[in-house]
Amino acid sequence: MKLLVSPCYHRMCEECVGNRFNAGPAPCPECHRILRKNDFYQPIFEDLTVENEVRIRQRMSMIYNKREDDFKSPKEYNAYLEMVEDHIIRLLYDVDTNEIDHLIERYKRENQASISKNRTKQQREEKLQRIISDQESIKRQQQREEYLKQLEEEKREKEQAKNSLINELATSDKDAKEIVKNKMVQLKKSSLSNRSASRKVQLDIESLLGTIDDGFGDDDMEEDEVDTGPFDPAESPYEAMKIELRDKYDDPNPAFRQGTLAAAGVTREMHQRYTIEGAMAGLFVPPATEEQDARQ
């Protein structure tokens, strides 16, 4: 059943409205106000009090559309707003509605020029805002497509570099360590180039696309933090220590079972040395003094 509402805010079903008002104007069955079929409409809000207030405010905003710039002082503007609000409340609660309707019509006649001027100004501002919003939407879509294209290109280049590395390791007589080093340098240069292009995008890409985990590791690093030098997997990132490794360790790390580090040229001994050096690196740092604690 589709319920409709009359201008006097009484509900009737659509079928009853048709049966009662198809022949012409007829009285409302509740308040006996003369109504026409076209006067009925489908409400937006379930609460008819809210529905009534919204429509009253819409009507008043079309007539009382002056702005603060139209008044000499904020005091006059506030008095104007208070008068409009008083009219709305009295219409909403059906207090002296005939008098308020008379005041509204008189104001409309006396201020017809300013009402029309402000209405035109408001329509122009709304149109401009829609144009700006549409342009921003188009710009965001273009930037999103550009960013996704760059991600896809970088992913494709990494896949090609991986296949090329595997092929060269299988067919070349060169040292495997040197091959891996050269490939890593090429891949870093390509990644930096793509990253530099993506920084030209002015808007915040993360806010446009949401949180995206692209799995590209150091893509969120600042440009001055990226190591652009050649990568040497045999070079330890820690300060050299005199450590004697055992022949074998119980290593719970499953990386070698997956072959990931081995494919990158890192041997089991290198991995174990890095792990031990990393665990011991903080042991040789002198404790902080009281002065250093106070500065912190």
Automatic annotation (TrEMBL):
Residues 35-204 form the MAT1 centre domain. PROSITE patterns: ZF_RING_1. The keyword NADP does not apply. Keywords: Coiled coil, Metal-binding, Nucleus, Zinc, Zinc-finger. It comes from the Eukaryota. GO terms for cellular component: transcription factor TFIIH holo complex. Residues 215-227 have a biased composition (Acidic residues). Residues 1-30 form the RING-type domain. It is found in: Nucleus. One of its GO terms (molecular function) is zinc ion binding. This is RNA polymerase II transcription factor B subunit 3. The lineage of its organism: Eukaryota, Fungi, Fungi incertae sedis, Zoopagomycota, Kickxellomycotina. The gene is TFB3.
